[in-house]
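Section 5: illustrative case.
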């Protein structure tokens, strides 16, 4: 894996860059919360079934600890795979993002479609020194593209490079 480039080089050469390694922890924490909620939801469906089948001993001795203790495992691996498979490049045409664990997507946001760009930093992002970039576009079905897990300086450099307009155009 390559490290992210410093903020001084906006990556206009079009080469793909990976997210900051610190973003892996944010991905893992979010996945852990999501998978645990999924496990709790599954238990909410299984508890009435176990009570109806008169299996409360099996339920409380094996099923609940099994679900709550094993859910972090797939969350850990899924978040790592998600982090590894997400990369971005800023080229002359615009911002290109490739991502996806099971369903892969390759998105190109042309500079001509960019309406505005937001930087966002939640509490975990601030703690890790990271930021996310939200690119709002014109004339598209979705209208917003988010790229999380960038160093704050890199996100600022990407934002500035993406909205830069040449004097020839004006």
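Designed sequence:
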């Amino acid at each position: 894996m390559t490290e992210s480039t410093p903020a001084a080089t906006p990556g206009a050469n079009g080469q793909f860059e990976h997210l900051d390694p610190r973003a892996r922890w944010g991905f893992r924490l979010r996945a852990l919360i999501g998978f645990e909620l999924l496990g709790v939801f599954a238990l909410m469906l299984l508890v009435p079934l176990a009570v109806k089948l008169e299996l409360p001993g099996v339920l409380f001795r094996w099923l609940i600890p099994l679900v709550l203790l094993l859910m972090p495992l797939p969350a850990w691996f899924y978040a790592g795979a998600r982090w590894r498979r997400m990369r971005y490049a800023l080229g002359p045409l615009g911002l290109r993002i490739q991502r996806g664990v099971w369903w892969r997507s390759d998105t190109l946001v042309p500079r001509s479609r960019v309406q505005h760009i937001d930087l966002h930093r939640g509490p975990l992002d601030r703690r890790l020194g990271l930021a996310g970039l939200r690119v709002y576009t014109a004339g598209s079905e979705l209208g917003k593209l988010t790229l999380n897990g960038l160093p704050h300086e890199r996100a600022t450099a990407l934002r500035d490079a993406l909205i830069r307009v040449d004097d020839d155009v004006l």
